[in-house]
Every structure is written in structure tokens, then in C-alpha cells.
Amino acid sequence: MRKERLKAVMAMALIIPALCMPAKVTADINNSFSDIHSNNWFYSPVLRLNSLKAISGFPDNTFRPYNYTTKAEFVKILLDAFKIPVENGHDYSNIKDHWADNYVSTAIANGIIPESTYNGSFMPDKLITRIEMASMILSMLNVQYVNDKSPFDDISNEVSTTAFHEYLIMGSIKDGKRYFKPYSNVTRAEASAAIVRAIDYMENSNGYKKNSHKELVQQEKLIAKQKEEIRTQELYNTLVKPSAVIAQVTENAKLFSSYYAPYNVVGTVNKGTKVEIIYGMYTQWFYVSYGNVKGWVSGKVLSIPPDPPTNTNKMTKEQLEGFVNYKGFASNAPYFVWVDIDRQLTHVFSGSKGNWKLNKTIQCATGKNESPTIRGIFTVSRRGDWFYNPRYRSGAKYWVEFSGDYLFHSISLDSYGNIKDPTLGKRASSGCIRLSIEDSKWIYTYIPAGTTVWVY
Predict the structure, then answer these.
(1) Catalytic amino acids?
(2) Considering only CA atoms, which of 194, 137, 118, 116 is closest in space to residue 104?
(3) 8 Å CB contact between 32 and 61
(4) Which residue range or ranges hold the L,D-TPase catalytic domain (predicted)?
(5) Is residue 171 part of a domain?
(6) For the purposes of burial, counting CB atoms within 10 Å of the CB of 106, is it exposed (0-12), middle (13-18) or buried (19 or more)?
(7) Residue 442 near residue 422, CB atoms below 8 Å
(8) Could you tell me whether strands 394-403 and 406-410 are parallel, antiparallel, or unpaired per DSSP bridges?
């Protein structure tokens, strides 16, 4: 009986002159709200409801689109938007003497709010949820519920499924999934948009569904794209692993601002704490981090794990190119260099951001765990054809600097230029990146200053 009564009222609403329900907000509709702008996604529905005198702003000329909506407020907006006559005389004790009692009573009497849902306790000042909003809109439109598989990943019931089936509430997309967010509260902007969609549906449901199907197609494309991105990320997570050196603190210790003047304490670290070694100094002091704390600590209080074996599972050319382009690496030179510590390989790419092509892959030897190669994104700067370090009694040819004292250079040589340590393919250096003499000369010759280097 109530549904028939509501249908009659709705039929009257359909014959109201078209100017009472403008199809679109046009430039000649005055926007008096200081916080509503034409580039807002809710601009059109807000002004449209305002032109219908279904929703208004605040005395300071604001609309406050992100304020949440109470159940009473939503009922009033909904009934005013659909030109439903507000009736007196209904007695629902829970809302008696409330400012919206006639609106809520009318909605209950006409089945817009099912009495089973009301159950004597409507709580008009409680914030409305998305599922409550959907239920009222479907009842207003007298839509027959659909019993089908839920299109949402966070709810499965007839209300949400029907709202989606009729293109009234499409949900939001995140991580390749569609969410209804049934128990989230509704902002004034969201309420305006949902009610305007319902008005369009009432005026011409077939035309509305046809137009709204385009939105669904775009959603499906977005879901497919996000799922592909997730699959890609999962693949790269299995192929490209971080090579951080994690040490354990063996006794309570202080962290200092520098290793050469260990008196300025910047923090403390407790026994058993795991810290990441960022870089070291002569295997005696280490710059470490844990949480948001960074500082120098004595090597005497660290238990550093042994060097792990080299990962011999190589990535294909397609995987390498796909990965660096997926990550969006940029360079100020036509080259990009990736040092893969896990595999002890240096990959050189040519091209530009989004279009890197593998030029060559070079076997290398990075720092041992007790003297790790610094990790991160750096830039090639200076270079030279020879250096010798008396402290280590070791030198190298064709060095190229990418971060302070961290260099690409040849395998270890003695002071006469003879090979001292030819080791490549495993962690072996004091922090620099060793290459064969031939490959170090190639880097020295062809990789210009400004080239981005990613060590990971």
C-alpha cells in the first residue's frame, strides 16, 4: 500500500515542468558557495540540488562539501529533491519534536525508510552510512532488488548489488578491487551526487543506464590496469630483492653524529636491536639506522652476518628493461646504471625515462657485509685513470665516482699495476664496485657525468 502511494507521488513528480529539474548545471546557474569550484567533481550535482532548493549552504556562504551528513539531513534533501510532499500527523516517538520529524515521518510512512529498519529507533542525528543511503534511494525509486553475485569486495547483499546493477552507486576502485564501503559515512558532496544520479534515473532509467554504462567500462579498464600493475609488482618483488645488511646489536650502545669525534650522542640502541648498516669506515665504525634514528656506532657492538651467496638466477633482457621502465627511473644523461648487489651484476641501459634499452650487463664485485656498498640513487661525477690507497695497499684503474668515496673501478691492483685480487661475482670489496679492467675502462670512457646510478 505504501509503495503504491509512493508511486503515485513519484508520478506527480515526473510531470513537474522540466525547469524544476534541470538536466545539467549550466554557467547561468549562480554558484554562491565560496568553497565550490568548477573543477570539483561534485560541482554539478551540488549546484543542481541547490537550484532545486533541496540543499543549501551556511551563513558564511560556504557549502562545506566534506562535512558528513546525518540521517535526518539526508532524508530532508532526498524528499525535497524529489518534490515529495511532507506530511504531518504521523507519530513516531523516537523523532517527535525533532526539527526533521515530519520529513522522517513522511519517509517512514511512504516506505522510503522501511519500518522494519526504523524499528522504533531511527536516531536522526546519527551520521548516515553508504548502505543506509543506498537503501533509501532504492526505496524512493521503487527498484526491485537483484539477487546476484556481488560486484564488491567488501560487501555482499541485495542493497549494494542492486545499487550497482542499476548504476546508482558504482563504488570506488583500489588495488584492482571495487569497494562499496558500506559503513563509511557520507559527505554532503557524496550525498548530492548520489541523489542527482537518482533523479536522472527516475527521469529516464534506460537512458541513464546507457550513459552510466560508459562509467562502468572505464571502471573495468581501471580494475584490469591495476590488477596488471599488481601482478607486475609481485613479479618484480620476486626477481629484485633488497640487499640491505642487517646487523644485531650485542650490547647497549650509543649512537654518535660522527665516527671521528665520538662525543656528540644522537641516540641509543639496545642490545638485541637489529640495525641496517648504511656504510662503514675501516670496518671499525658503522653508520646505521633503525626506525627514524641514524648514527655512528662502534663495530665492537655489532654482530654482522656473513656475506650471502650470489643469486645466480639472472633476469631476462625483457625483464630488466621492463623493470627499469616500470620504476620510472630518470637520468640527466642518455645512460642509466643499475647495480644489482644480489646478483653481483651491473646493468647499463641507454635511452631515456620510460624507454630504457639494455646496453650491456657487467659482472662486478660489491662491498662485503663488513664494508657494504652504499645503496640508493646517485649520480656519476668525477673520474680518473688510476688511484692507489696505501692504507689498503691496493689500487685500481679507471675509477668513476658516483657517491663520495664510492667508485666504479677495476679489480684490485698493486702499486705496480699488477693484479692483486681478480675476484668478481661475489661481495669482495671495501665498498666500491669492482669491474674487470676492460669493463671499468668502458664505464670510464662512455658513462658521462650526470648519469643516474641505482645501487640496490
Answers:
(1) 409, 432
(2) 118
(3) yes
(4) 335-456
(5) yes
(6) buried
(7) no
(8) antiparallel
423 with 349: CB under 8 angstroms? no
Q: Which residues contact 263 (CB under 8 A, 6 or more apart)?
A: 256
**pLDDT band at residue 27 under the 50/70/90 scheme:** very low
Half-sphere exposure of 312 (CA within 13 A, CB side): 1
pLDDT at residue 89, rounded to an integer: 66
Dig out the grid coordinates for 189 from the structure.
558532496
Q: How far apart are CA 430 and CA 370, in angstroms?
A: 8
Range list of H helices, 166-267: 188-203, 205-239
Q: How far apart are CA 380 and CA 448, in angstroms?
A: 7
**DSSP class of 185:** B
**Are residues 279 and 387 both part of a single domain?**
no
> Are 382 and 401 contacting, i.e. CB atoms less than 8 angstroms apart?
yes
**127 in helix, strand or coil?**
strand
Mean pLDDT across 207-232: 96
Same domain as 189, residue 41 = yes
Structural domain contains residue 140: yes
Confirm if 429 and 368 have CB atoms less than 8 A apart. Answer: yes
Per-residue exposure over 419-431, b if at least 16 CB sit within 10 Å of its own CB, e if not: ebeeebeebbbbb
Angle between helices 205-239 and 188-203 (to 10 degrees): 130
CATH number at residue 349: 2.40.440.10
Does one domain contain both 273 and 181?
A: no
Map residue 340 onto helix, strand or coil: strand
Q: Are residues 299 and 321 in the same domain?
A: no
For residue 379, the enclosing domain spans 317-455
Give the domain-ending residue among 171, 194, 226.
226
Residue-wise pLDDT tens digits, 84-102: 999 886 666 678 789 999 9
C-alpha cell, 283? 670496518
Answer for the pair 168, 198: CB distance below 8 angstroms, yes or no. yes
Q: 240 in a domain, yes or no?
A: no
Q: How many domains does the structure of the chain reveal? A: 3
Query: pTM (2 decimals)?
Result: 0.72
How far is Cα 100 from Cα 379, in angstroms, rounded to an integer? 65
Q: Are 407 and 440 in contact (CB under 8 A)?
A: no
Digit-coded pLDDT (tens) for 362-392? 999 999 999 999 999 999 999 999 999 998 8
- Among 226, 254, 283, where does a domain finish? 226
Rounded Cα–Cα distance for residues 9 and 80 (Å): 13
